[in-house]
Amino acid sequence: DKAGYPHFMLKEINEQGSVLRRALFGRTASDLIDLSGEWGITPEKAKTFKRMDLVACGTSFYAATVAQRVLEKYLKVDIRVDIASEYRYRPLRAGGDTIAVFVSQSGETLDTLEALRHVKELGAYTVAATNAPNSSIAREVDDVIRLNAGIEIGVAATKTFTAQMAVLILAGLYLAKLRGELPGADEKRLAEAMKDLPYKVEQTLLLKDVVRSLARKFGAARDFLFLGRGVSYPVAMEGALKLKEISYVHAEAYAAGEMKHGPIALLDEELPVVVVAPADELLEKTLSNVEETRARKAPVIIVTTENVPDVNDVSGTIKVPMTEAELTPFLTVLPLQIFAYESALLRGCDIDQPRNLAKSVTVE
Ligand code: F6R
Fold first, then answer.
1. What's the whole-number mean pLDDT along residues 138-155?
2. Where are the alpha helices (DSSP H) in the chain?
3. Is 328 in the pocket of ligand 1 (CB under 6 A)?
């Protein structure tokens, strides 16, 4: 049931406030991060890890990459993130000191399942973050952390991306806490900020008209470049993927600092560049990439936070509410989802069933 929306994707985009409330429910009581109700891992076990591997495909891989960028500040283990179809064939040095986390909305992605089997054989402790607690991946791991996002029908993942980021960050912070690595002040700061996110998500979704008019402005563009640094780099990748898969427009994401190492040659007035640049310690660096882009006449759309002053001579600015720097992906991704949706709508694409794609990829 589309609940009055023209597409499941739009319904699912708009559900993200309540999806986050559910993902946080019972995990952030009174400003503490506590998953003990569902995750029986002991502090002794948590302290044995030296390595964490986050493994997934597609949008789930980008959610895992956001989590990696956030958690490496707190969790004192070597945190790696990999694409399942690469990981499963690599000669891993993982073993009993490894916690391997498999991120899969459907729990049925074959490459992710095979990656799980590969590292399990080496003795790793395995966890699934999934929306499907009875799935193949959920059955084979040591522990499951549920997304509780509700069924997602649109082929393009939206609300499960949000739920994945939330549970991965919560689970990783909880692990850091069990290991004695999470300062109480950070736990409180992040738990409080996460509890404010559902409302801020709803505020951000109100920007839909601004985003729609930008999608119209660039309705004839054939290529887009997406840029971001740090936590915003995987957000840029997710924005580019959404645009490709539902509107069939070519979009490529780059770490903003890599632009001068090649893609800068592409820039001209025909190539719109979407820059994800919220207020964080990397903002100034990203704004210098905006300067380089403008100097080559490429139109720029900036996705930033409300506290960042306007940048001159850009084609569009989208300002999301302020939050902790680590948590900006929960807000900056939303205009990118809406941008992809509006672009696909303009182009008359089949939004909920894009060509050549299936909701669950059970082939290699
Ligand atoms: C993109 C999309 C895919 C999936 C990928 C992994 O919108 O839906 O990229 O994210 O196929 O699927 P799961 O998470 O089910 O393993």
1. 97
2. 8-14, 16-24, 43-46, 58-71, 84-87, 110-121, 136-140, 159-178, 184-205, 208-217, 232-247, 283-295, 329-346
3. no
- Name the residue at shortest CA distance from atom 9 of ligand 1: 58
DSSP 121-162: HTT-EEEEEES-TTSHHHHHSSEEEE-------SSS--HHHH
Q: Is 170 in the pocket of ligand 1 (CB under 6 A)?
A: no
| Closest listed residue to residue 160, CA positions, set 65, 19, 21 | 19
Band (pLDDT 50/70/90 cuts) for residue 295 is: very high
Q: What ipTM is given for this predicted complex?
A: 0.99
Query: Is the per-residue pLDDT at 346 higher than 90?
Result: yes
pLDDT at 33: 97
DSSP state of 351: S
The sign one gets for the Cα dihedral 73, 74, 78, 79 is: negative
Q: What pTM did the predictor assign?
A: 0.98
- pLDDT of 362 > 90? The answer is no
Q: Pick from 114, 124, 126: which is nearest to 86 by CA?
A: 114
Q: How confident is the model at residue 149 (pLDDT cuts 50, 70, 90)?
A: very high
DSSP summary character for residue 53: E
Q: 359 catalytic, yes or no? A: yes
Mutate to test the pocket of ligand 1, among 62, 82, 105 (most ligand atoms within 8 A of CB): 105
